[in-house]
Amino acid sequence: MSMPRWPQRCAAGFLLVCAALVACSDPASKGQEVRVAVASNFTPALTDLAKRFEQQNGVKVVIVSGSTGKLYAQIKNGAPFDVYLAADELRPQALEQEGEIVPDSRFTYAVGKLVLWSPMEGYVEANGEPILPRDCKYFAIANPKLAPYGRAAQEVLEARGMWESLSDRFVRGENVGQVFQFVDSQNAELGFVAYAQVKRPGQEIAGSFWLVPQELYSPIEQQAVLLTETAAALSFVEYLRSESAREVLGGYGYGAADGKS
């Protein structure tokens, strides 16, 4: 189900506020840090972005990764994060409705893509036919109740009429990061992971994969919210929305919020 989008005038207003505050307080942000709670699929890209941001701004980025659901629960219990980068739009919207964020700060920072992947060459058919090789014993998938990529994987398998028949082969991870570890270590022959976990800028993808057509699952709109209004946090959010950050994300296989690849 498509969720309400951030009104353009609110977005424009928030950007103007961010720009003004960052411009006025940039010297004060030097030497500070920003604590970012991030969905596990986005951790590699965020690590790259954080290095670039730190070099440009002198602000340290402290990264805490985990499942979107678990991070949401930590925020509700008072975890001291400044920015929350979720793998969906549901939890950021819930935090907004619950009054837990800086007003009008919710936005889509990336659109995720689902991929069926194995580190073994030729194991996964590039067109997804069939999804499962006959000799596959263990199929890794993220918990659909906690992880947006798990929900997307369930939608794909349900559309193919395979969800129930494959349930005895599932190896479930708390988040898509654990799913990647299961498959990468070959404790499972293949699994549904985030495209960004196997794609790196300028590198070939190891193993074999099926990039799942996006019409087979609900859009994975990864949204961010600002939890504190410090100069460091405002500066980081502004950077995340920049054109240079968008270019980095494209190299990791994320789609842009405006629908561009």
Task: Provide structural commentary.
It contains nine helices and ten strands. With 261 residues, the protein is an alpha/beta fold. The chain has two domains: 8-112 and 220-251, Periplasmic binding protein-like II (D-Maltodextrin-Binding Protein, domain 2, 3-Layer(aba) Sandwich), CATH 3.40.190; 114-211, Periplasmic binding protein-like II (D-Maltodextrin-Binding Protein, domain 2). A five-stranded mixed sheet has the order 2-1-3-10-4, sandwiched between helices. Helix 2 links the parallel strand 1 and strand 2. Helix 1 (8-29) packs across helix 8 (231-240). The longest helix is centred in the N-terminal third of the chain and has 22 residues, at 8-29. The model is unreliable at 1-29 (pLDDT under 50).
Comma- or semicolon-separated keywords:
261 residues; alpha/beta; D-Maltodextrin-Binding Protein, domain 2; 2 domains; 5-stranded mixed beta sheet; 9 helices; 10 strands; disordered N terminus
SSE layout:
Layout: H1 8-29, E1 33-39, H2 43-57, E2 60-66, H3 68-76, E3 83-85, H4 90-97, E4 107-112, E5 114-118, E6 139-142, H5 148-159, E7 170-173, H6 176-184, E8 190-194, H7 195-198, E9 208-211, E10 220-226, H8 231-240, H9 243-251
Parallel strand pairs: 1-2, 1-3, 6-7, 6-8
Antiparallel strand pairs: 3-10, 4-10, 5-8, 5-9
Helix pairs in contact: 1-8
Mean of residue pLDDT values: 87
State the CATH topology of the largest domain: D-Maltodextrin-Binding Protein, domain 2
Biggest sheet, spatial arrangement of strands: 2-1-3-10-4
The profile of the biggest β sheet is: 5 strands, mixed
CATH superfamily of the largest domain: Periplasmic binding protein-like II
Principal-axis shape equals globular
Put simply, the count of helices is: 9
Helix content estimate: 25-40%
User: Helices and strands: which structural class?
Assistant: alpha/beta
Low-confidence stretches: 1-29
The CATH architecture of the largest domain would be: 3-Layer(aba) Sandwich
What is the string of SSEs from the N terminus onward?
HEHEHEHEEEHEHEHEEHH
The count of DSSP E runs of length 2 or more, i.e. the number of strands, is 10
The rounded distance between the terminal residues' Cα atoms is 22 Å
Determine the strand fraction and express it as a percent band: 15-25%
Rg (CA only): 19 Å
CATH class of the largest domain: Alpha Beta
> Please, how many domains?
2
